[in-house]
Design a protein that fits this description.
Layout: H1 2-5, H2 11-28, H3 34-54, H4 70-84, H5 91-109, H6 115-122, H7 141-171, H8 175-178, H9 183-191, H10 197-203, H11 213-219, H12 227-237, H13 247-256, H14 262-266, E1 273-276, E2 279-286, E3 291-298, H15 318-335, E4 345-350, E5 356-361, H16 371-376, H17 394-409, H18 413-417, H19 423-429, H20 434-456, E6 459-460, H21 463-467, H22 472-477, H23 482-489, E7 499-500, E8 528-530, H24 535-548, H25 554-574, H26 579-587, H27 597-603
Parallel strand pairs: 6-8
Antiparallel strand pairs: 1-2, 2-3, 4-5, 7-8
């Protein structure tokens, strides 16, 4: 650690903390040692400045003791962290907690820290850990479709623009022989890497107003001072994709691949993409998890022929999108060997005053090239702006794809997490989405309705069950004892509409009192038992309920008769085989429906 400590004045202190850092990483098996390393560098640099201000020599300062009180330095350092990294930044808390963890490790292992410093090592940082920001919400279904359609329109427009640029390139030549006032010659020069803003200023009129009209159209509305830069960017965009042109591919791929993170997609190299007869296989590197996953994305089999593996097919699945992406980015890799190994490459002006164009990897983080910049530039087919809820974060695209998988597959969280996440990670970061909550609520409601229906719906006994009603097995299956079954068979428990297991145990009246709501509520009672001989009466009840539709307002009818109508419809569906005879008996007048006068005046007014 001598070379590491040599960068600081407090070399002994830096070396001791660096040793603790190495031991800490080995003990905890940390894949990413950056956080404790940053803490050590930040604290030792602060200690150097603190000691210099007070005229204290840095060499004798060490963890076991010295001319300076390290506890006081830590206290001042934490206050400085809070100033440099104000809330809601987590950086200050992370650095302070990492340094204290190293000191606590040294105190436990060696026991040679001063008591004051050892006590400080066991205490938490001075300031509280900032609250976690609210989790990102997925895009709604309407937003997902709007983003998908906008991305497809943009990809078609980019492909048309680049195709026109390539056709123009074929007609161009070296402007030093063919002239500088033809767009085709300027396109040829920018494709060959010969064009710079200094060259344009040297060979074109000083005033952009004197340029040929076709050249002014390429430069756009830029002012005189920025016209050469705008012209250079416009010429490059005619044959090479801009970084913003790659955003629609990114949007569609993230929506199509729920198991791929934005970081994994951005880090894809050419060697990570392997086209096969059945689709494309991607080697996705997840740095935070320290693993590489190989995923096969299938698509229609395409006979592209030998050597044509990267040709575009015009498809919108993952293999088709990647082939089209290769098609528009291949010219960049051919013109700029520095980026030949990467998938997401672009050509844009760079240098002082954007003096020339060069190829580079796309990062989608610079101003004007982010996802939000692409979204704000999109319009619907009718010309209206694309309205997408903020924040415009690429992680929301992944969450949207995850929720689409939830909708398609359903199941438990363990099934939905799959091999892409731990169950707890999926629960905290994906299962909280509004769509997932709505689906979960719908599932709970459906289950509750089934339970409630089983508790309130009548029991239907067919002809065979009625004939053997007093048999112990049959009566037990219907929830009856033998005495109740015998009384029901003899008609002693007929309530005028259906049979009742126990008129004194109605869920609609106080316990111990005879039921006074029969037959109005019989179809909503768990005590009701329906025989085939009762079906004609129930047909008449259904007709009566249907007549009430014309006499009552819809809210009144739904409140008074809606649930009974639904219960009758379900019962009729279950005993469909017996319904033709029941309807015939009702039509021929072989059944009568007797409503109590109180029921008619209460329900039919």
């Amino acid at each position: 650690m001598a070379r590491y400590a040599g960068r600081f004045a407090c070399r002994v202190l830096a070396a001791e903390l660096a040793d603790e850092w190495v031991l800490y990483c080995r003990t905890r098996v940390l894949r990413g040692p950056d956080r404790p390393a940053r803490a050590v560098r930040s604290f030792v640099a602060f200690a150097d400045a603190w000691l210099a201000e007070r005229g204290i020599g840095p060499q004798p300062v060490r963890l076991a003791g010295g001319p300076a009180d390290l506890t006081e330095i830590i206290y001042e350092w934490e206050h400085d962290l809070r100033r440099v990294h104000p809330s809601p930044s987590k950086r200050g808390y992370e650095l302070a907690s990492s340094l204290l963890a190293l000191l606590e490790q040294r105190s436990v292992r060696e026991g040679d820290l001063p008591p004051k410093l050892a006590a400080r090592a066991q205490a938490p940082p001075l300031f509280r850990k900032p609250a976690e920001p609210p989790p990102l919400e997925e895009f709604s279904q309407a937003e997902r479709l709007a983003l998908r359609d906008a991305a497809r329109r943009d990809i078609r427009a980019v492909e048309r623009r680049l195709a026109a640029g390539r056709a123009l390139l074929e007609t161009g030549c070296d402007p030093r022989q063919g002239g500088w006032e033809r767009v085709a010659n300027l396109v040829w020069a920018v494709h060959q890497g010969l064009l710079k803003t200094t060259v344009l200023r040297a060979h074109l009129p000083t005033s952009p107003g004197r340029w040929p009209i076709e050249i002014r159209q390429v430069a756009g509305d830029a002012g005189p001072s920025w016209a050469p830069q705008a012209l250079l960017a416009g010429l490059a965009a005619m044959v090479f994709p801009r970084e913003l042109d790659l955003q629609p591919f990114r949007v569609l791929l993230l929506l199509a691949m729920d198991e791929c993170t934005p970081e994994e997609l951005l880090d894809l190299a050419l060697d990570d993409v392997e086209f096969t007869d059945g689709g494309v296989r991607l080697a996705q590197t997840k740095h935070r998890a320290g693993r590489i996953r190989r995923r096969l994305h299938t698509g229609p089999v395409a006979d592209t022929g030998e050597g044509a593996a990267f040709e575009g097919e015009g498809r919108w699945d993952v293999p088709g999108l990647l082939r089209r992406l290769f098609a528009i980015t291949d010219p960049v890799r051919h013109a700029y060997p520095d980026v030949v190994g990467w998938l997401w490459v672009t050509v844009e002006p760079s240098g002082a005053g954007r003096a020339r164009v060069r190829g580079r990897r796309a990062e989608f983080v610079l101003e004007g090239r982010r996802l939000t910049d692409w979204i704000t530039r999109q319009c619907r087919p009718d010309g209206r702006a694309l309205e997408i809820t903020a924040p415009h974060d690429a992680r929301r695209l992944r969450k949207t794809a995850k929720i689409a998988r939830v909708v398609a597959l359903g199941g438990t969280i363990a099934d939905l997490a799959g091999d892409d996440h731990h169950v707890e990670v999926f629960r905290r970061h994906y299962a909280h989405g509004t769509t997932a909550h709505v689906l979960a609520g719908r599932a709970v409601t459906t289950a509750q309705q089934k339970v409630f229906a089983s508790l309130t719906r009548p029991v239907f006994a067919d002809e065979e069950a009625v004939a053997e009603l007093t048999e112990p097995e049959v009566s037990a299956a219907l929830g009856l004892d033998e005495d109740t079954a015998g009384a029901m068979r003899d008609g002693q428990l007929d309530m005028g509409l259906v049979n009742c297991r126990d008129p004194y145990a109605s869920p609609h009246t106080p316990a111990g009192s005879v039921c006074h709501v029969a037959p109005a509520m019989c179809m909503l009672c768990r005590n009701a038992v329906v025989f085939p001989s009762h079906l004609p009466r129930l047909v008449l009840l259904a007709e009566h309920i249907d007549q009430m539709r014309s006499r009552l307002t819809p809210p009144q009818w739904q409140a008074l008769w809606g649930r009974q109508a639904a219960a009758l419809a379900q019962l009729f569906e279950e005993c469909a085989a017996a319904m033709p005879d029941a309807r015939r008996a009702a039509q021929e007048g072989r059944a009568r429906l007797h409503f109590p006068l109180g029921m008619r005046t209460e329900y039919d007014r």
